[in-house]
């Protein structure tokens, strides 16, 4: 039961359309269900404002479908699925049932949406997603599509890294940076982009280190440590390749 359902239920009690006893029974519905391999959280949106998201990596194709069906059947209008393989997306399409209104999948970001596809941008301002290079785009798209799913207007600034800093400080890019409400700075290698943007912007900057880089980048650890040690104020850092976490946090900031 989502928040709007509870509001409707209380209105029905107020208007005498539903008895107090019937309302109590509905409110006592279990907040989760034990499916053996998963316990989908039906009250996530009541506690956190957004429904549960399915992390697809490591789950079987069947498990992803069954969890999505269960969430949709219990009031979620749409379900975000991250780190979903192309094979899993094809299986999902082949096994859609009446519980699933629609389904879309983006192979680059490995992000899928099950259920209602229409999205309304309700955020206060815009979220800018910037990358150091083209190789960072898959993580950036995970962040961008997560933010869009959660109701935000997203502007993409890709391949504006410090190796060609003039790409970042031209008027068009600077206008986007200076007018943003939140910025997600995504970079591998030495991860310097977050510090540069942090020194230019007057809004929160969420840094995302990526596993892009040569041997001594240690799979993103070098970028992570650089971002954690940024001297620019207002820069926070999420885990390596965690585009979803950055997009979710940016959405929370953009809705306050």
TrEMBL record:
Domain PurE per the UniProt entry, residue ranges: 125-256
Pfam name, any one: AIRC
Residue stretches spanning the membrane: none
Alphabetized SUPFAM superfamilies for the sequence: N5-CAIR mutase (phosphoribosylaminoimidazole carboxylase, PurE)
Biological process (GO), any one: 'de novo' IMP biosynthetic process
GO molecular function: hydrolase activity
Gene3D superfamilies tied to this protein: 3.40.50.1970
InterPro entries: P2CMN_synthase_LarB, PurE_dom
NCBIfam families (alphabetical): LarB
Name of protein: PurE domain-containing protein
């Amino acid at each position: 039961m989502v928040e709007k359902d509870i509001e409707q239920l209380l209105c029905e009690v107020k208007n005498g359309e539903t008895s107090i006893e019937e309302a109590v029974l509905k409110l006592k519905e279990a907040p989760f269900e034990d499916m053996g391999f998963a316990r989908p959280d039906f009250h996530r949106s009541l506690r956190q404002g957004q429904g549960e998201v399915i992390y697809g990596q490591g789950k079987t194709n069947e498990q992803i479908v069954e969890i999505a069906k269960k969430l949709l059947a219990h009031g979620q209008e749409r379900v975000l699925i991250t780190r979903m393989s192309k094979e899993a997306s094809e299986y999902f399409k082949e096994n859609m049932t009446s519980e699933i209104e629609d389904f879309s999948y983006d192979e680059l970001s490995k992000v899928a949406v099950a259920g209602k596809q229409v999205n309304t941008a309700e955020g206060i301002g815009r979220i800018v997603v910037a990358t150091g290079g083209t190789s960072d785009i898959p993580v950036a798209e995970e962040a961008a599509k997560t933010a869009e799913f959660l109701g935000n207007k997203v502007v993409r600034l890709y391949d504006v890294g410090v190796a060609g800093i003039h790409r970042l400080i031209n008027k068009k890019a600077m206008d986007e940076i200076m007018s943003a409400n939140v910025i997600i700075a995504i970079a591998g290698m030495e991860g310097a982009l977050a510090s540069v943007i942090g020194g230019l912007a007057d809004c929160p900057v969420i840094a995302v280190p990526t596993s892009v880089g040569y041997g001594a980048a240690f799979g993103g650890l070098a970028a992570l440590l650089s971002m954690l040690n940024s001297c620019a104020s207002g820069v926070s850092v999420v885990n390596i390749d965690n585009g979803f976490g950055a997009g979710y946090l940016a959405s929370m900031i953009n809705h306050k």
